Amino acid sequence: MQQKEADFKQKELSFQKQLEQKDEEARKQLEEEKKKLADQIAQHVRKQLIADHELQLKMMQEEMVETKTRLEQSRQKELDFLKKEQALINKEKELDLQLQQNLLAERAKLEEQIRQQELERNKLKEQEHEMAKNELKKQLEDQKKLIEEMKRKAEQGSMQLQGEVQELALEALLRNTFPFDMIMEVGKGKRGADCIMTVRNQYGQECGSIIFESKRTKDFGKDWIEKLKADARINNADLAVIVTSAMPDDMNMFGLKDGVWICTFSEVEALVAVLRENILRVHQANKNQENKGDKMHMLYDYLTSHEFSEQWKAIREGFMTMRNSIHKERDAMEKLWKAREKQLEKVLLNAAHIKGSIEGISGMENVDLNLGDAEEGLLLE
Fold it and tell me: pTM of the prediction?
């Protein structure tokens, strides 16, 4: 009986030593697993922190690039404004030169017209002494012309009625085609042309005028041009146009003759559109020359004014505020990352203790305790 008790005690001591040895081995293995797990977690956390830091740096770089792009755009807009201003100045100079050239050309034409008028007056004086000889002949020719005129009126109707119809058609065409302009009719029997067109721009400002004379006859009258030019001077018209069914002998289509535009009724719409555009351009060029020095002074005063200084100061303050805000956000995020790293280490350490306790109690190894997705690597194995 004593021998059995001694054997039992001997076996119990041996079993206890084996248990202690197994506990020591399990403890060592658990420490190794803890160390591996701690290394894996530290490496993962380090990678995650590096990725977050890189992301923040990338966001900051993108914001800096965007700020730089905005500044470059602002500079480019300023450069474009200066280029446009210089182009406008060059264009004004070109218009001045072109206007001077046109004035010189018109002056030369006017001198030529005066010389022609002098030659015509000299010719008339030379022909006066022949008029007495040809008086009888002229009376016979007048009788023949009177007979022919009566025949023509009998065949075609009243020429005056036809001319009035064309005058009304011309006024209606101008009113319908250019509704913003003012068309004034010259009364029948009054001295002057048929109608006057006052050209207006898009703001309703009067830019110039065109005087019209409508003719519907078989032959072009030589005195029409001079008469219309006199009417244009009386009415202060810029341009003069004769709308006729019979063109001069030296013209087969619309054109300028002795300072007066001549065209048919079918050509008047296109011709007036071109003349009207020319009047608008000349008016705009003259207007641009007005107060040119005042505009430069206004621009200089604005650039040196308190308003411009305050606006630029506001832009600079906004930029500085944005940069300080970025620095503050970066410092706050770094503090937050440090605090989260400490919390994560504490959670992983407690999880390792729980895993070891469960394996010791159950006698199982490699108990799977997931703390996140398998892809993230936060596993306790």
Answer: 0.39
